[in-house]
């Protein structure tokens, strides 16, 4: 794929603040390269102009790529095989039905070894209050752990409380997990979760619609929530107060026709009142266990096939997989030889090898790098 | 009404173990007096014979009346104005649709001042596990209290755990409550609840399909549960394990077309798992508060009318009301004069006056009995 497409989308992802429906329509019509040229030149309709004029002269593409590459990240675009086209169909369908937040992102900045399309083949969003109770955190951790064991990717927002517990539970079971941020993937937010975000990127993916250095803002959380809802086969609200942001993710889940689930809790606890509201209105079905989540989101026959396939699955993105495959099974291979063999450029190989090492897939030996013993593609060896 | 009818039903209520559908059909066809004569003489169909032959020569009517009168009780029969005909319509309807446990009782032994038809005009069954958690007992107490405050009678089974908490909460708010037993109203079961049953009888009613001295048995609990379900506009299951008897009451509630409600609880608690099962299957709607219970069981416009009417309501049965009305407002009236004035026989007047006193409705003075200050019909003065 021409690098010009990726560069055009990188520019476009910074030029407008999502949601930017007019720009999205322009890209759909003209393709990203021509659309970027028009925006840059200012030769666009008033609607696109309103969305892009403020930032149209800002071109930070090289710098943005430098930042994400330093984090072993990359820009994922709809033209990539790794793009989660299937989950995102819900967005375009919703958009066609006039759902305000139903539009695909122009691109996704990602950090980590995971292969997004594969990771979201079987995924569940687990969300809830930042101000979670001990009960809520316990349930979120158990659900995260159990879903990972069942081969289901946990998607969440890396926030305090329920999100963090769900990611951690998944990681504890060696599962990949996906964090969707409301800021750049280079921005450690919340700061206390820098370590958690690092671990998520090593075993799954940290994803954002926002280019590097973008800081979180209230409207960005709301915009981000639709992606969490779209990437899961369903959403579990573990704990939510009556005004919790999780209810926004819940609304998006319903709008996309995905399964909305809520965990019951003590009726004496304000942090469960939002869940009970969703149950009482009939919007959500109650789930008390991982088995019930799997049952509610399961596609007929899928789980059985999945169980036999899981060992062969490769939730690692293209470059990392090519680097891994270029490694020797027994003897070491030099970094330069890996680059030649894999066709991945040298700086990227240098970036990816330590990540593969952290994921337990590669190891450093005297004469270079080799695959580690018992490595497999799930990164949970 | 001829005393012969009441005596016939007293005999019939002992001669067969409920459910006795053939006997019920005979009574419906011939009336209670002729049916009792046929049963006594043994001139009945094989089906009725199978239900009644073992006890047909047992006639304890006088003794049974003595026992319940000593407890200030009485036998309530369908011919009484106080019979809960409206709630019990659900039973005959269910029976007509082949529901096995859908049949009206032949009579009800009751103990207490309450007027059953009035008490069940607006009533909710609150049931749950004997082995309740602290959480479950707390919710049951709060619901009992709040329902009483909302003018709703709590119906339950006087068992340990949820039942006791619901009755106690209602009593604490000064509300009347109805306990339906699986044994005779003279049998203190469980023994530890003798005091609770006394308090219930003073502020509401203790009710049983079983004649005095009948002891509880497993099948009697199941038979009893249908009456709890029938007497409420709906049933709230506060806590229930997967095999709790409360699920039997829940099934009866659904079979009668009444609203089934379940209280969510921690998914980590086995005592809530039955509730969550009912919610997940869609059999029950979740309720988190008294307001939601009232909303789920409310009949349009009823609650408003009820609020203005509640102070005029007289949930006291006919005899007690007549005795009360025969009392002077300021000066005392002799027991004999009350009997003459009220038309209630002397032993019953002697039995009722202390009960009215305990309920805060009457007081003993030098020259007999008078109404107490600020007494009202709700017995919660």
| Number of E-state strands of chain A | 11
| SSE order of chain A, one letter for each helix or strand | HHHHHEHEHEHEHEHEHEHEHEHHHHHEE
Helix content of chain A: 40-55%
The largest inter-chain interface, given as chain pair and residues per side, is:
A-B, 21 and 21 residues
> For the largest beta sheet of chain A, what order do the strands appear in spatially?
1-2-6-5-4-3-7-8-9
Residue fraction in strands of chain A: 5-15%
Number of helices of chain A: 18
User: Cα-atom Rg of chain A, whole angstroms?
Assistant: 21 Å
Task: Please describe the biggest sheet of chain A, giving its number of strands, its sense, and whether it closes into a barrel.
Answer: 9 strands, mixed
User: Given the helix and strand composition of chain A, which structural class is it?
Assistant: alpha/beta
Mean pLDDT across residues of chain A: 88
**Quaternary structure classification:** homodimer
Q: What is the approximate shape of chain A?
A: globular
Distance between the termini of chain A: 33 Å
Quick overview of this protein structure:
Chain A has 381 residues and is α/β, with parallel strands linked by helices. Chain A has 18 helices and 11 strands. In chain A, strand 8 (259-262), helix 13 (273-280) and strand 9 form a beta-alpha-beta unit.
Written overview of the protein:
- The first copy, chain A, is of the alpha/beta class.
- The first copy, chain A, contains 18 helices and eleven strands.
- Chain A has helices at residues 3-15, 21-30, 32-41, 46-52, 61-70, 85-96, 116-119, 134-149, 162-172, 194-203, 218-231, 246-255, 273-280, 290-297, 302-309, 318-325, 335-342, 346-358; strands spanning 73-76, 108-111, 123-128, 153-156, 177-181, 205-208, 234-239, 259-262, 285-286, 362-365, 368-371.
- In chain A, the strands form two sheets. In chain A, strands 1-2-6-5-4-3-7-8-9 form a nine-stranded mixed beta sheet, sandwiched between helices. Chain A has a two-stranded antiparallel ribbon with strand order 10-11.
- In chain A, strand 7, helix 12 (246-255) and strand 8 (259-262) form a beta-alpha-beta unit.
- In chain A, helix 8 (134-149) crosses helix 14.
- The two termini of chain A are 33 Å apart.
- Residues 300-315 and 375-381 of chain A have low confidence and may be disordered.
- The interface between A and B is medium-sized, with 21 and 21 residues.
């Amino acid at each position: 794929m021409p690098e010009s497409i990726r560069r055009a989308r990188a520019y476009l992802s910074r030029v407008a603040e999502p949601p930017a429906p007019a720009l999205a329509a322009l890209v759909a019509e003209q393709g990203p390269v021509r659309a970027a040229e028009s925006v840059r030149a200012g030769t666009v309709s008033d609607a696109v102009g309103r969305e892009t004029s403020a930032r149209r002269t800002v071109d930070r593409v090289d710098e943005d790529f430098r930042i994400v590459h330093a984090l072993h990240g990359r820009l994922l675009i709809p033209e990539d095989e790794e793009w989660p086209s299937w989950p995102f169909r819900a967005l375009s369908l919703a958009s066609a039905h006039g759902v305000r937040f139903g539009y695909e992102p122009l691109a996704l900045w990602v950090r980590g070894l995971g292969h997004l399309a594969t990771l979201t083949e079987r995924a569940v969003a687990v969300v809830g209050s930042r101000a979670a109770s001990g009960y809520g955190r316990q349930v979120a951790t158990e659900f995260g752990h159990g879903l990972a064991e069942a081969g289901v990717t946990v998607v969440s927002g890396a926030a305090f409380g329920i999100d963090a517990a769900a990611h951690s539970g998944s990681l504890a079971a060696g599962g990949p997990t996906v964090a969707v941020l409301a800021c750049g993937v280079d921005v450690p937010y919340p700061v206390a979760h820098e370590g958690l975000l690092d671990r998520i990127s090593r075993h799954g993916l940290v994803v954002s619609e926002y280019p590097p250095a973008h800081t979180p803002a209230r409207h960005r959380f709301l915009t981000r929530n639709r992606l969490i809802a779209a990437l899961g086969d369903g959403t579990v609200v573990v704990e939510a107060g009556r005004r919790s942001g999780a209810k926004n993710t819940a609304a998006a889940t319903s709008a996309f026709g995905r399964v909305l689930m809520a965990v019951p809790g003590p009726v004496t606890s304000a942090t469960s009142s939002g869940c009970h509201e969703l149950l009482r209105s009939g919007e959500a079905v109650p789930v008390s266990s991982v088995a019930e989540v799997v049952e509610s989101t399961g596609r007929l026959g899928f789980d059985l096939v999945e169980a036999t396939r899981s060992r062969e699955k490769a939730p690692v993105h293209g470059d990392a997989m090519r680097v891994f495959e270029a490694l020797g099974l027994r003897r070491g291979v030099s970094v330069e030889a890996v680059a030649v063999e894999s066709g991945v450029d040298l700086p990227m190989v240098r970036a990816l090898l330590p990540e593969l090492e952290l994921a337990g897939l590669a190891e450093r030996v005297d004469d270079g790098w080799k695959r580690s013993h018992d490595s497999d593609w799930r990164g949970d060896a």
